[in-house]
Amino acid sequence: MTIVVHPGDSLTARQRLVYVVVLGALTALGPATIDLYLPSFPSLEADFQVSTGVIQLTLTATTIGFALGQLLVGPWSDKVGRRTPLIVASAVHVCASLGAATAPSVEVLGLFRVLQGMGAAAGGVVAMALVRDLFGGRPLVKMLSRLAMVNGLAPILAPVIGSQILRFTSWRGIFVFLMAYGVLVVLAAVFFIVETLPPERRHEAGHTTLRQRYRVLFRDRVFVGVAIVGAMVFSGLFAYLATSSFLFQQVYGLTAQQFGVLFAINSLGVVVGVQVSSRLAQRYGPQWILACSTSVMILAAATIVALDSAHLFGLAGVLVPLWIFIASCGFSFPQVQVLALANHGKEAGTAASLLGALNFGLAGLISPVVGFIGVSTAAPMGAVMVCTTAIAILSLWILVRPRTVPELGH
């Protein structure tokens, strides 16, 4: 007789595949909203006659919107269920995309990018909460890793799609495309997503107020430490995202289409990292995978700074260690999610929202630093990566303390 410990244990392989694809598509709305318009940064700079740093602030505006949106959507989904917040927030994304496509100035564009980020935030938060509602233990690791794999396709495809859109239209066409994608997300939420949070779990004792849910999370040393690790890893990756268009198109002379291909190759590192990490997680604890991946990250980032400062190996001297850094991020992301959510099924939406808010909020604040320092070389980007990874390593060993984390169940 098979004992069903978690609701997802009774799903067939085909049903699990449907969940992976649909939830992956929902989560991918966020990365698509960020990455699709990266190839258009130089044209935005020219159209609005503003500096590189100002254009990067429109990316920061999106991440701020992500952070605010996740702080709202996560607790809301714990209180009323998963479907309604997802549908409402995705509809906001559709309207904001239309506004961004018609923005007359960079200030108006920044405002609509905040709203776009808030709307897109729901996909990632609700998808993680849905998976936590259905699974636990090792199956949770597997599902989050598969979700991360599908989600990893978004940053690979988005710049390629964006660069191709720019062949036929201006940067405004990119936001029209995002509006259409948002409409598909709304339809998917209406027709494919079922409610996974039973009414009785929305008002359980001890978890009825937002303050109580936050108190539970902030009193968990492992959650706080892992959240900082995840935010710093994401901030290091985001320093690359915010800089890459200017660095590779203006400094190294690549076209928008060449940049899209290069970005796709780099983003394959995330997919490779996630898949290998998923297999390793069956044997080793997620905290030990994080210990290894963050160590590799800081070495790769330091290599970028060293080779670029010494003018060795040219573009290859940047791309090889950068790919290793990005792949190490792929190793890290699923393990951060597993460690953060494993002991917080009752407040999964709030926990997921805090993870996302820290990720995008800190990344949005940190990434423009590179633009204002200057993007004449790769060294500033690498230096920011070194600093963020160093903080992640300190948080892992001082707060999380890998030796004290218990093994996951089956």
What does it look like?
The chain has one domain (14-193, 208-404): Growth Hormone, Chain: A, CATH 1.20.1250.20. Helices cover 79% and strands 0% of the residues. The protein contains 15 helices and no strands. Helix 3 runs antiparallel to helix 13 (348-366). It starts with 12 loop residues before the first helix and ends in a 10-residue tail after the last helix.
List the helices and strands and how they pair.
Layout: H1 13-35, H2 41-48, H3 52-80, H4 83-101, H5 106-134, H6 137-168, H7 171-191, H8 210-218, H9 221-251, H10 256-280, H11 286-309, H12 314-341, H13 348-366, H14 368-373, H15 379-400
Transmembrane segments: 17-34, 54-74, 86-104, 110-131, 143-162, 174-194, 222-242, 254-276, 288-307, 313-333, 354-375, 381-400
Membrane topology: Multi-pass membrane protein
Main location: membrane
Describe what is shown at a glance:
The protein is mainly alpha-helical. Helix content is 79%, strand content 0%.
Secondary-structure arrangement, i.e. CATH architecture: Up-down Bundle
User: Which runs of at least 5 residues are low in confidence (pLDDT < 50)?
Assistant: none
Within CATH, the superfamily carries the name: MFS general substrate transporter like domains
The Rg value, from CA coordinates, equals 20 Å
Beta-strand percentage range = under 5%
Indicate the mean pLDDT. 83
Count the DSSP helices. Answer: 15
Q: Main β-sheet: number of strands, strand sense, barrel status?
A: none
Q: Would you state the CATH class?
A: Mainly Alpha
Going by helix content, strand content and strand pairing, the class is mainly alpha
Basic shape: globular
Here the CATH topology equals Growth Hormone, Chain: A
Q: Helix and strand string, N-terminal first?
A: HHHHHHHHHHHHHHH
Number of domains: 1
Give helix % range.
Answer: over 70%
Report how far apart the termini are. 17 Å
Q: How many extended strands?
A: 0
